[in-house]
Amino acid sequence: MTYPIRPIDESEFPVYSQVLEEAFGWAPHPAMIERAKAETEFDRTLAAFDGDQMAGVTSVYSFTMTVPGGQLPVAGVTAVSVLPSHRRRGVLSALMRRQLSDIRERGEPVAALYASESLIYGRYGYGRASTSLPFRIDTRRSAFVRNAPQDPSLRIRVAKPAQVREELEKLFAAVVTRRPGRYERNAHHWTGILADEEADQAGRGPLRAILAEDDQGVRGYALFRIKSSWDENDIPAGTLMLGELEAADPAAYALLWRNVLDRDLVTRVETYGRPVDDPLIALLADQRQVRARWADELWVRVVEVDRALSARSYAAPVDVVIEVEDDVCPWNARRWRLTADLTGATCKPVDDEPDVTLPVAALGSAYLGDGMLGEQLQAGLLREHTAGVVHRLATAMSWSPRPWTGLVF
């Protein structure tokens, strides 16, 4: 069957929401639904129809995202859902193909998403491009190394998050370009981050904020909730759940973490996810106290190979002919010469013999600087025609700091 696909309008949002609720098996609070509606870009929200019934949906947020060496317009794919009654009928495939075509027409060379199920999106050319590190720390064993940075001019200010929104926004805007995968936030994003109704608290307590500042202004902030608890002997055993911690410099960063870890009546700090190269790990005297687990985070899809590869920076010179396999976006399926050094890059179509043949998802996984091209070669998923070229390509596409997004969309 074929399913007509078109953008929805605002009047169809209730039906669109019902598809999401059925597909994800959730029942969001009405306030959360209204926030989602306010940030929906209806001209970028597609629905597939079975007759008059909305059978599947997907949407896009228009982002400016940090990539190695700069920023790029990126399509933030979200709300990918199909009714349980219409699974395995081609609804999802039709939606994803239409969406990628629309993204290309918009001039966005890259798409990115958070995957509710990691098995799905490789079929459409997405590759795992960043890793998140959720972890917990026993605060009683959280001493820093002796040479941790300090600045006597810094002080901590406790504040109501909503009352310092402007200061939080300004600080984040100053640091967003430092790490690939971060995206600029609009007013709707900040409204969601600072939302603090009962449904947002979910038994974890109100949202709290601390700011690290000096006489010139704010140099960092942390947002968190505290779930109070006592053990059977009435000994405090509270858990601090860290939402965000951002800082403009190492001293402010260290001071914020020290304040979070030294909070009275708290014995454990948990994070929803941090970068795999979070500087906190280096600050801790006993790094074994970071009890972490690995989690895939952002998945990236190269929509237009030439524009995407020429728009980012590279860590080392490389000159390679890449044969791209892409059965979803056929305009990518050809040979490309990538020539790059520390001053810039070009990517042009060629008919030369390839140095390497790879699926487009492999380029997506490496795009933000944290790909596993070498591992994929060893697994037999890439075909290297020129010895050593995958190592050179992987080195050139690597980046420090490692990519991380930090806010699900």
TrEMBL record:
Annotated active site: 121, 409
InterPro entries cross-referenced by the UniProt entry: Acetyltransf_17, Acetyltransferase_Eis, Acyl_CoA_acyltransferase, Eis_dom, GNAT_dom, NAcTrfase_Eis, SCP2_sterol-bd_dom_sf
Keyword set includes Transferase: yes
Entry keyword annotation includes Transferase: yes
Keywords for the protein's UniProt record, in alphabetical order: Acyltransferase, Transferase
Tree of life domain: Bacteria
Binding-site residues, acetyl-CoA: 80-82, 88-93, 116-117
Record-annotated N-acetyltransferase domain positions: 3-151
Self-association and partners: Homohexamer; trimer of dimers.
PANTHER family cross-referenced by the UniProt entry: N-ACETYLTRANSFERASE EIS
Recorded family membership: Belongs to the acetyltransferase Eis family.
Name used for this protein in its record: GNAT family N-acetyltransferase
